[in-house]
Design brief:
By secondary structure, the protein is of the alpha+beta class. Helices cover 39% and strands 29% of the residues. The protein has six domains: 2-194 and 309-374, no CATH class; 197-286, Thrombin, subunit H; 387-426; 429-533, PAS domain (Beta-Lactamase, 2-Layer Sandwich); 545-704, Reverse transcriptase/Diguanylate cyclase domain (Alpha-Beta Plaits, 2-Layer Sandwich); 724-971, EAL domain (TIM Barrel), CATH 3.20.20.
């Protein structure tokens, strides 16, 4: 049994009669709850003594109120004493003062430890005093004893919000708590809390707070916000009015109510719980319709449980705001079981698995029963409430507020998301972002702006943006600003001064800020592009300008030429294109190295620029080649004059690496429109003319002609055919016999290449050999000749001509290749011919180009048995002193000395000298180009060893040579 009876306290004698009448002094487990609405006239200490004397075993817990609940009825400024008799439940009361603890949280933990010792199942707590942090108190209890059921309410003082009192049989406190613990294994406990808050209006962020005092919301004074949204009357009636419109705070995933305890003189407010900066608060109102629906449902469920006692802790605001329903609700609770309690300043809400909360505008109760088995009923009651006209009006207003709030919430959500997007973009943007008003004064800047320019927000807000722009750029920036105000996005680069005094280049974008169709300012977005600009300029320089001379390169020059041509066409004027090629520049590179060569070219470019007329554009195409455009009065006479000045300026001696050089150049010129309509054709024709200048010895200027173009086309066609000739088997070898002048015997032949093209027919070696050397094709062609000649000579040897030798010409390009020696070895290996039957003919220039390398290769050839011959001897320019060091076997006298060889001519003396020198060097001498018997006789007389020429025999096809071999064998058998 958990039976409750109650009385309204009048005086001592009335109390004693009530106790005696109900024989309350006979119960050892008796809970006495005292709820007084007139603590100022009630002698609480006297009442405590009376109860202790009369009921020495009773546990007392009480508090001051803002209204009392006596047997389901509301009383005002009365004292209600409830006596609850337990059979199987033990009780223990506690009285704590907050000042005895470090804080409210520690007070809660201490109480929880005491409750744990008592093995408490439920506890009723009456906090008193506005300095008690109820949230921290409940958190302290929950952390230590999370499973205990907690109920109760915050002591009131009839809406004065000055001082609440709590007491037990042991004493009284105005800054602490009174509590009573219930311990039993047979007690049924049902806690309940009914509070239905509905958010309304915008959200506010706590921007300054300390403990439970809020100094600013959204950087504004809280009282100013309350006045703006709720009016002067609300401010005047605080803190009582605050119970009707509290704040809602999101805390640990739940919305909890925050009540204003009192306004402070500095525009701040004190609330009933601790808040932190960054917390979000919204106004709230009680949703009566939901409260009623929830209450009726709870009454129905509670009725089925048939509790024996109900302790109710109700919010004082409900008594004022919805008194009719509150009275009816309490009456229905009384119909279920004795319902007693009080109206408080805050009610404890307990839900299993969650931290208890101090809530508001709520009804909480604790339903108790010790006879659990007998508590079930079969016939549920119907609970209802007939709404009054006033209530219906309030409900309609509630619906309106709810619907309006939904609209506001949707709008706020959209605005908040937009604000968050904007804030994220604004604050976290790597680019600097700012805004100005219509006058160009700064209204906001982001952190990147501060970092970029060094100015803090308070230094720059309100100041004109133009004051930070370099003076020269102000008119242009002002123009872009006004264009942006007219709705046109603006992009531009501008130099801006930073706080440190540094001037950097920035890329800016201005866009209008439009509100309700009207422009109210501009946004600016920008970044520092100083380094980027330097890099771009460097890239441009590398991409379009020559590194060594600083002149435009091929790409840039061609681009500029194209522009000049467009202007020339428009104005119907002539322009000239000159190609300037330095003569024999390779000698400088080879002798001094490329670095020195580059320095020489730089000097040459500067010399050319010194003599150029206005309207000229000089570029470096590649290597030792420059190009020039003359865009003003480009007559033949002017081109000639400019060219002569260039040639004259270049020809002055150049000193480099302690050496002095005389440099000349070959110039080719083409004129627009006569020699070409576009840049590519003009450049090509100028090149052709340059080549003609070089062919004529250099140090001259040549104007392009169509004849040159035709020759160039023929040469280009020949090169194209030559590249395919080898793979199409268009080459073949002829063999010219070599005879021993002393015996007249045939001792070998010289392999001579021929080209039979299907379209061109037989092409002279004098035409295609130089071209093959120039293009590098000579390497493959020479390799083919070497392999084919060795193979053929071996075949003849196998036919019986065992001592027959073969001579093969080797080009300078082929000889200088790193793999040449290996190529010779491979040709011998593939053919099977012995090395001593192979003679390689090299020109003087080939061997003397790189003497050390040539000697090394020639010696290697000698080591494997291959003979080496100097071809066209006597036509070179090098010193004869090299001859004694060259490992050679044969000197071959050039045909130019043999062609006119007659008795009593100067050629006889030259040929005699060469033959004598050959004998002195112990090498054989061969005369080529023999045309007459007289020449044969003279050569014999001069003791020349071998000869070849048309008089002996012209070059023969393979089959013809074999036929000649056969006849030779027959006549010498």
């Amino acid at each position: 049994m958990a039976k409750t009876i109650s009385c309204l306290y009048k005086n001592t004698s009335q109390l004693n009669r009530f106790i005696d009448l109900n024989e309350l002094d006979e119960y050892p487990n008796l809970l006495v709850q005292v709820f007084t609405g007139n603590p100022e006239s009630l002698n609480i200490a006297k009442l405590q003594k009376e109860l202790a004397d009369k009921l020495p075993f009773a546990q007392i817990a009480g508090c001051s109120t803002s209204g009392e609940i006596h047997e389901g009825r509301i009383t005002e400024k009365q004292t209600v004493i409830c006596f609850t008799v337990f059979e199987k439940t033990e009780l223990k009361s506690f009285l704590f003062n907050r000042t005895d603890f470090k804080n409210s949280y520690e007070m809660g933990k201490t109480l929880a430890r005491e409750l744990a010792i008592f093995n408490t199942e439920a506890v009723i707590i009456f906090p008193a005093g506005f300095d008690v942090d109820s949230t921290a108190l409940l958190e302290g209890i929950n952390e230590t004893h999370p499973d205990i059921v907690i109920s109760g309410g915050l002591a009131g003082d009839n809406g004065l919000f000055q001082e609440g009192l709590a007491f037990t049989q042991d004493g009284l406190t105005s800054d602490g708590l009174a509590a009573v613990a219930l311990q039993s294994g047979h007690l049924s406990v049902r806690p309940f809390a009914n509070y239905q808050w509905q958010e309304i209006g915008k959200s506010f962020t706590v921007t300054k707070a300390e403990g439970s005092i809020i100094y600013s919301l959204d950087h504004k004074k809280p009282l100013n916000i309350l006045k703006h949204y709720l009016g002067e009357a609300f401010i005047k009636d605080l803190p009582e009015s605050g119970t009707e419109f509290p704040f809602l705070l999101k805390y640990r995933g739940e919305k909890v109510s925050v009540f204003i305890i009192k306004p402070l003189g500095n525009g701040a407010i004190k609330v009933n719980r601790k808040v932190e900066e960054g917390d979000t608060l919204t106004f709230a109102y009680a949703n009566l319709e939901d409260i009623i629906e929830r209450s009726l449902q709870e009454l129905k469920e509670l009725d089925q449980l048939a509790p024996e006692s109900i302790f109710i802790y109700n919010c004082m605001a409900r008594k004022q705001f919805a008194r009719d329903f509150t009275e009816k609700e309490l009456e229905m609770f009384q119909g279920i079981a004795p319902a007693n309690g009080f109206f408080s300043y805050g009610e404890i809400s307990f839900r299993k698995g969650r931290v208890p909360q101090m809530v508001g505008h709520s009804l909480t109760y604790l339903a108790l029963s010790e006879n659990v088995a007998e508590s079930k009923k079969n016939q549920p009651k119907l609970y209802s409430y007939e709404k009054t006209a006033q209530f219906k009006t309030i409900t309609s207003l509630t619906h309106l507020m709810h619907a309006s709030q939904d609209d506001i919430n949707a709008l706020n959500s959209s605005l908040k998301m937009s604000e968050q997007y904007y804030k994220s973009l604004f604050d976290n943007n790597a680019d600097f972002v700012y805004s100005t008003d219509l006058k160009g004064n700064f209204t906001s800047i982001n952190p990147a702006f501060e970092k970029t320019f060094g100015f803090m927000q308070d230094e720059i807000i309100g100041k004109t943006a133009l004051s930070y722009v370099c003076d020269a750029d102000v008119p242009r920036v002002r123009m872009h600003f006004y264009r942006a105000l007219r709705g046109k996005e603006q992009y531009y680069n501008v130099y801006i001064n930073t706080k440190s005094g540094e001037t950097n280049l920035f890329q800016l974008k201005n866009i209008p800020i439009t509100v309700n169709g009207e422009c109210v300012g501009i946004y600016g977005i920008g970044r520092n592009i100083t380094e980027q600009k330097k890099i771009e300029e460097k890239i441009t320089e590398l991409a379009f300008f020559d590194r060594d001379t600083g002149l435009p390169n091929r790409m840039k020059f061609t681009e500029q030429l194209e522009m000049q041509l467009k202007r020339a066409r428009k104005k119907q004027k002539k322009i000239a294109v000159l190609s300037i090629d330095i003569d024999r520049f390779k000698i400088i590179n080879d002798s001094l190295g490329h670095f020195a060569g580059d320095m020489v070219l730089k000097e040459i470019s500067e010399r050319i620029e010194r003599v150029l007329p206005s309207g000229s554009y000089l570029g470096r195409f590649s290597g030792d080649k420059f190009t020039l455009v003359l865009s003003r009065e480009a007559t033949i006479e002017k081109v000639m004059n400019v060219s002569k000045k260039i040639l004259d300026e270049i020809s002055h001696p150049i000193s480099q690496s302690n050496q002095e050089f005389i440099v000349t150049a070959s110039i080719g010129a083409s004129l627009h429109p006569d020699d070409g309509a576009d840049e590519h054709l003009l450049l090509k024709n100028a090149d052709i003319a340059t080549n003609r200048s070089k062919q004529q010895g250099g140090n001259r200027v040549t104007f392009f002609s169509m004849e040159m173009n035709q020759q160039a086309m023929v040469r280009l066609e020949l090169e194209s055919y030559l590249r395919k000739a080898l793979q199409k088997n268009e080459f073949f070898l002829c063999y010219q016999p070599l005879i021993d002048l002393d015996t007249g015997n045939l001792y070998g032949s010289e392999a001579l290449i021929r080209w039979n093209h299907p379209k061109l027919g037989l092409v002279s070696p004098g035409e295609f050999i130089p071209l093959a050397e120039e293009t590098g094709l000579i390497k493959d062609i020479g390799g083919w000749v070497l392999r084919s000649a060795c193979k053929q000579n071996k075949r003849w040897q196998m036919l019986g001509y065992k001592s027959l030798s073969i001579s093969v010409n080797v080009s300078a390009y082929q000889f200088q290749q790193p793999g040449f020696l290996q190529e010779v070895k491979m040709a011998l290996e593939l053919s099977g011919m012995e090395p001593q039957y192979l003679t390689l003919e090299l020109t003087e220039s080939t061997m003397l180009r790189n003497v050390e390398h040539s000697i090394q290769v020639m010696q290697s050839l000698q080591n494997i048995g291959v003979k080496v011959s100097i071809d066209d001897f006597g036509t070179g320019y090098s010193s004869l002193s090299y001859l004694k060091d060259l490992p050679i076997n044969t000197l071959k006298i050039d045909r130019s000395f043999i062609n006119n060889l007659r008795l009593n001519t100067s050629d006889v003396a030259i040929v005699k000298a060469i033959i004598t020198m050959g004998h002195g060097l112990a090498v054989k001498v061969v005369a080529e180009g023999v045309e007459t018997q007289e020449q044969i006789e003279l050569l014999k007389e001069l003791k020349c060893h071998y000869a070849q020429g048309f008089y002996i025999h012209k070059p023969l096809m393979t089959s013809e040579f074999e036929e000649g071999l056969s006849k030779y064998a027959q006549t010498h058998s």
